[in-house]
């Protein structure tokens, strides 16, 4: 019995394979060396083995080609992904997340920028310490952001935009914004420095047997006296170098200046900030104070 192969050659049928005396043609039209004897069972079995072997080889070759295509495609996608990641990494590298304990050139750049905007944080040293936390809290309050002291994308945005508050009263004075919990040093009608503060928490406390509500009254005042040149200790705790402007309410240094109202009525500042204000005559007897 004769068959015609895919290349037009006539072949003699051998069992279930096809031969031309020297080669087999499998079911895919592939020519392989003859491995059967015409008309014998062995020939039939060999033909089937050759056909299966050839099909398996073809499938493997096809799979290898597909695998290479997939690998090449994956490599290309990986290259594109790497390019995308590089852009994102560059952007985040310029403004990384910074918090207490962070160190390096990004912290130094942040400190310089905060100081330039009036959010005093001392001499830039590349260490995200307590003064930097205070300055970050202040700008977060002015920008209306969450008050956590961590410099993430939104806080970086406020820093990069140059977010600053304005004065309500003008002239030369101290202004206390109770809603935002900040103290501002105003000179020539413009805000020169901004500090994080903590004012009266509104709760009742006992002072020498009297119940008093912890408030920081709004109004116009003047600094009228100062305390010691160190810690003043009393029934309510310690006040560092206080400057009083309304009875027992003062600007003073404290070891605790949270982002929320927590005092008995005074305006808490960091010890370093209080020292800075006094050293630069930004707090003095007779200075106007506006509280709102």
From TrEMBL:
User: PROSITE patterns attached here?
Assistant: LD_TPASE (PS52029), TAT (PS51318)
Which SUPFAM superfamilies does the entry mention? L,D-transpeptidase catalytic domain-like, PGBD-like
Key word Nucleotidyltransferase present: no
Q: What organism does the UniProt record list as the source?
A: Dermacoccus abyssi
| Catalytic residues (UniProt) | 252, 266
Q: Which InterPro entries match?
A: LD_TPept_cat_dom, Peptidoglycan-bd-like, PGBD-like_sf, PGBDSf, TAT_signal, Transpep_catalytic_dom
Q: What is this protein called?
A: L,D-transpeptidase family protein
Where is the L,D-TPase catalytic domain positioned along the sequence? Answer: 172-292
């Amino acid at each position: 019995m004769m068959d015609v192969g895919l290349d037009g050659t006539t072949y003699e049928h051998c069992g279930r394979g096809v031969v031309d005396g020297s080669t087999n043609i499998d079911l895919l039209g592939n020519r392989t060396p003859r491995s059967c004897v015409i008309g014998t069972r062995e020939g039939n079995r060999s033909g089937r083995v050759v056909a299966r072997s050839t099909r398996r080889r073809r499938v493997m070759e096809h799979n290898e080609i597909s695998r290479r295509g997939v690998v090449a495609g994956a490599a290309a996608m990986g290259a594109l992904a790497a390019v995308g990641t590089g852009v994102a990494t560059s952007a985040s590298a310029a403004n990384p997340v910074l918090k207490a304990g962070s160190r390096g050139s990004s912290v130094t750049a942040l400190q310089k920028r905060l100081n330039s905007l009036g959010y005093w944080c001392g001499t830039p040293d590349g260490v995200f310490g307590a003064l930097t936390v205070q300055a970050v809290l202040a700008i977060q309050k002015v920008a209306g952001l969450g008050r956590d002291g961590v410099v993430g994308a939104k806080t970086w945005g406020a820093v990069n935009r140059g977010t600053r508050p304005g004065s309500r009263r003008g002239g030369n004075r101290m202004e206390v914004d109770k809603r935002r919990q900040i103290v501002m040093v105003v000179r020539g009608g413009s805000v020169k420095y901004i500090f994080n503060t903590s004012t009266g928490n509104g709760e009742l406390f006992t002072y020498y047997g009297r119940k008093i509500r912890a408030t920081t009254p709004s109004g116009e005042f003047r600094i009228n006296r100062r305390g010691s040149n160190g810690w003043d200790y009393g029934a309510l705790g310690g006040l560092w170098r206080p400057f009083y402007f309304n009875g027992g309410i003062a600007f003073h240094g404290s070891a605790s200046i949270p982002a929320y109202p927590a005092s008995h009525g005074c305006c808490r500042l960091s010890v370093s900030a209080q020292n800075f204000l006094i050293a630069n005559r930004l707090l003095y007897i007779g200075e106007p104070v506006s509280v709102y």
